[in-house]
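pasting for ref
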Amino acid sequence: MTDRTPSEVQAPDGGGRRDPLSMLFQPGAWRIEKRLAVRPWHEFVALVAALLVAVAIIAGLVLVIGKSPADSFAALYNGAFGNWESTLETLVQATPLILTGLAAAIAFRAGVWNIGAEGQFFAGVMGTWFVYDMWGGLPAPLLFVLMFIFAAIAGALWSSVASGLLVRYGTNEILTTVMLNFVILYILSYLLAGPWQSPDTYYYQTVRMADSTYLPRFLTGSRLHWGFAIALLAALAVYWIIRRTTLGYEIRGIG
C-alpha cells in the first residue's frame, strides 16, 4: 500500500510530491518540434487560421479608431467585387501580385527570407523599359521576348546584391532585401524624374509604350489581359515543380 493519491506523483529529484498539472508549466516541460510530414489538411488549416488571425487584427485596428468592422469589410468587398467592372479590375491588379508572390514563394521554400520581391519587380520594370527605349522599333514579338528576358535578368541581378552579401559577409537577408526595396525605388524615381521622363508631362512617368507591346485583352472595354491567365498557369507550374520534381524536392530539402 502507498499513501500516494492518483493526483500526485513523485518529483523527478525524489524530493516530495508534485501535482501533474503544475509539472506542465515547469521549465523544459514543453518542446516544439518540426513535423516530419505535413499533410495537405495541415496546410489548409494553417492557411485558414492565418486568414482568421489577419481578419481579427484588422477588425481590432478598425475598432481602435472607432469605426465598424462590419462596415469596413463590406466596403472592402464592394470595392473589389461589388460589380463586374470592379471584379475585372481586381484581377488586373492581382496579376503582378501573383507573379511576384510566386517568386517569393520559391525562395521561402528554400529557406531564404526574400522580402525584396517588390524591389526586384521594380528592377524588372526598369529592364523592360530599357529594352523599349533602346530597341523600340523592333518587331513586336521579338521586342516582347527581349523585354521579358531583360526583366528577368534585371530582377535576378538586383536580388543577387542581397544574396551576395549573405554569402560573402553573412548579412541578414531580411534586412538587406527590405532596405534594397527603398534603394531601387529611389533609383526608379530619379530615372522617371530625369532621363526617362516624358517631355509631354510634368509627372514622373515615361512616354506611353506602343500598343503592340501590350498583351491582348480578354474583353473589350476592360483592362483584363492574358497576363492573368499566364499568372494562373505559372502558379500551377510552380506547384508542380515544387511538389512533383526532383528540383522541387531539393528546394524543399534545403528549406
